[in-house]
Amino acid sequence: MVAATRTAELHPSHEATSAHDNYLTHAHGWKSWIFSLDHKRIGIMYLCAILLSLLLGGVFALVIRIHLWAPEGALVSNPTYNNFFTLHGAVMIFLFIIPGIPAALGNFVLPMQLGAKDLAFPRLNLLSFYLYSIGAVLFIIVLAVGGLDTGWTLYPPYSLEGTRGLGVLLALTATFIVGFSSILTGLNFMATVHSMRPKGMGWFDMPLFLWALFATGIIQVVATPVLGITVALGFLERMFHLGIFMPEYGGDPVLFQHFFWFYSHPAVYVMILPAMGIVSEVVSVFSRKAIFGYRFIAMSSIAIAVVGFLVWGHHMFTSGQSKWTNIIFSFLTFFVAVPSAIKVFNWLATMYKGDIRLKTPMVYVLGFFALFGVGGLTGIFLGSLATDVALHDTYFVVAHFHFVMVGSVLTAFLAGLHYWWPKITGKMYDERWARIAAILVMVGFFITFLPQFLSGLQGMPRRYATYLPVFKPLHQLSTIGAIVLASGMFLDAWVLWVSLRRGKQAPANPWGAASLEWATPSPPTHHNFEQTPPITGPYNYDVLEEVSEEAGWVRNDGWNP
Amino acid sequence: MHRLILAAAPGWLPPRASEGAEKVDSIFMLILGITTAFFVIILVAATYFTIRYRARKWTAPQPSPSHHLKLELVWSIIPTILLVAIFGVSTKAWLASADAQTAEAATTVYVTGQQWQWKFEYQGGKRSDELHLLLNEPVDLVLSSPDVLHSFYVPAFRIKQDVVPGRFTRLHVTPTEAGTFPVFCAEYCGNDHSIMQTQVVIHPDLASYDAWKNEKIDESVPLVKVGEMLYQKNCLSCHSLDGTRKVGPTFKGLWGSSQTMEGGEVVTVDENFVRESIVEPKKRVAQGYPPAMPPQSLGEREMQGIIEYIRSVK
């Protein structure tokens, strides 16, 4: 289908549509925000909180990387360094990556992709945000009361020693509370997808982002309670010496590791599944091709969610667990790689014979293929017993999980942010500078983390405040990369800031996407839709025609916002 | 077969000094080969499609099927087969070393990981801060910890074993290369986790090993020299000689000075205080310093040597 240009009179000009009453102008004052039940406003509040967390965790990361410029440590003392890497991990994982895509972007987009007015339980949604905020504030208080130096993994006996102050108790409480926020969000999403699909939208007519959020919801609801139980037990052990995890009271520290990873491994899929959902949307829209192998992608999300529960033991190959436990967990770990491989091939096949536009979201997604490729494939070295025993707890692992959790999830988050930005804010951003920022972020990322595979392979253990001089060149390369990565992020923040201040008005459908969130004005009205738009299929591009670059795309069945 | 793969291994792999290390490296190279092939496929396809199907004013998407069961089954099943194959090869190699764990070696070394150093005790009463092994002689390492989790990691052996308080864990190693290789703690264990490093010394023959085992500090070495040797080995990383503040107080001007302890007590640094600080370092800790020093067991002459040495650092 060739982009057809029509005369402007046939369609209301985009200035006229922008004058409508939208969710941002619907009510005023700070109370209209913090008591809002509107999923879009809650999504915005999440987005702000999550971006602040990203900034905080990012500053910690820079301190770490600059400190490691010199083998004896360039910046801080060893105990201070330990605080920085602990809080970097805790803030990034609990406050940024886990809630990042689902709670901020998912909250905004999910009801609209269903053509619905809100989530199934709007009040529960606001409660989730409050819980998240309370947890985040507690993490900030941890900083104020002397920090935390246990590693984000909180392994006892070190984390529960009797001489510790308030920090660890606060961190356990914060984790518990943030966990509930995650559970309630997952529950809300599952209920919404189950009960609020419009007439004509069966399970297999949903956008794949919804499949991804649904699968994520399963993990959040089933796994997160185990984290809650684990940190609650840790709390009780510290206060009352129950003898669960601490050997001095008759407990077993390895038991904690089992409990912890029973949640924290599936949590990796809480991060990556929504990221994959965004990639599915973006690659299809910017190739103007229906997604290839829809059912395989949808089912592979569910398969990842299910198999992801059965592989936690691979975090403990060197803990002294039994031979057969190691073998079984290794075997299952290999199987979780299959659905991920299927997705990658299907995305590539989607691009085949497409009409590929390299807008910012697509640039991020192309980077995602390379980053997730490295991250996923290096996982095989760690799932394999013989090589893991050598590589475990080295920088090889650090590089691997940063490729998966940052390289893949962060780039997908940024792809999603730039993809839905016109819908969320009603503004366009500068494509050229946004693309430059995207390339800086990804190049910086490769320079930061590729050398870490090498240093890990040569034996550099993780969580070291000081190191043998032989690793110095690789560490310095990493630090340079981190600075490039950070400058890319700041450039992008600038691009988005400028867009907010004086960006061009965004049309309802700037990218020519077929899912329903684009069948409402940008920004959407308070109720999203006056009536549910007719369902034409999430990847059916035949019903869309381009009016012009500024006016975006319209549906040719006459139904337009 | 695996020797052939190893020949292709680049120089950036660390030295190999144990029986299992070659096997581990050959599996590493095998996985590297397979994963690189897949990575190249992904990159080439993404790049080619992006260039070939880049949108222009006059272009439009061309028709192509939106699913193809056979194709999808192919790219589901081929990776599955390869993954199962890698699992098989890797597990077989790992099992060989795991089964060796149950074999009783002639020699046992007790390894203690404690905040923040390694201690080795050999049958016959010898103790050391570095692990001494004999080439081609299998040895059982029995690991334990009095405080928190540690992990005994020797990159040259390609092995790692967590040291878990409250239980013993074991490693069975046969060194295959004489030399000195680094030992790290790989499980985060607190403030000075990153200085919890030592070396494994692999003696080329029994004569060299016995010479080490029977080595006593020569009676003719003056006390201050004994002290200096001990300082170089054990104290250097935390106590400076030039007044620099490290983990612990500097030795410069320490002797005979008055020092304030945590809790406010003021002590004079004399023979008995130095002995107490070595045997029971956590009893009285200098104000403003972490209680980081692990207790040491020294012979009487070594103790005298340290005292003499601290006295000499002006």
What would you say the CATH architecture of the largest domain in chain B is? Sandwich
How are the strands of the biggest sheet of chain B laid out side by side? 3-2-1-5-8
Oligomer: heterodimer
Overall, the morphology of chain A is: globular
**CATH C-level label of the largest domain in chain B:** Mainly Beta
Across the major sheet of chain A, the strand order is 1-2
Instruction: Tell me which CATH architecture of chain A applies here.
Output: Up-down Bundle
Question: What's a concise summary of this model?
Answer:
Chain A has 561 residues and is an all-alpha fold. Chain A has helices at residues 14-18, 31-34, 39-67, 78-113, 122-144, 166-195, 208-240, 253-285, 294-307, 323-351, 360-383, 385-391, 395-425, 431-457, 472-502, and strands at residues 544-548, 552-555. Chain B has helices at residues 2-7, 21-52, 69-102, 206-213, 223-235, 271-279, 300-312, and strands spanning 107-114, 117-122, 127-128, 131-134, 139-144, 150-154, 159-163, 169-173, 179-185, 197-203, 258-260, 266-268.
Task: Please explain how this structure is put together.
- The complex is a heterodimer of chains A (561) and B (314).
- With 561 residues, chain A is an all-alpha fold.
- Chain A has one domain (42-555): Cytochrome C Oxidase, Chain A, CATH 1.20.210.
- Chain A is built from 15 helices and 2 strands.
- Chain A has helices at residues 14-18, 31-34, 39-67, 78-113, 122-144, 166-195, 208-240, 253-285, 294-307, 323-351, 360-383, 385-391, 395-425, 431-457, 472-502, and strands at 544-548, 552-555.
- Chain A has a two-stranded antiparallel ribbon.
- The longest helix of chain A has 36 residues, at 78-113.
- Chain B has 3 domains: 2-53 and 65-102, Helix Hairpins, CATH 1.10.287; 107-213, Cupredoxins -  blue copper proteins (Immunoglobulin-like), CATH 2.60.40.420; 223-312, Cytochrome Bc1 Complex, Chain D, domain 2 (Orthogonal Bundle).
- Chain B has 7 helices and 12 strands.
- Chain B is α+β, with helices and mostly antiparallel strands and 314 residues long.
- The interface between A and B is large, with 86 and 82 residues.
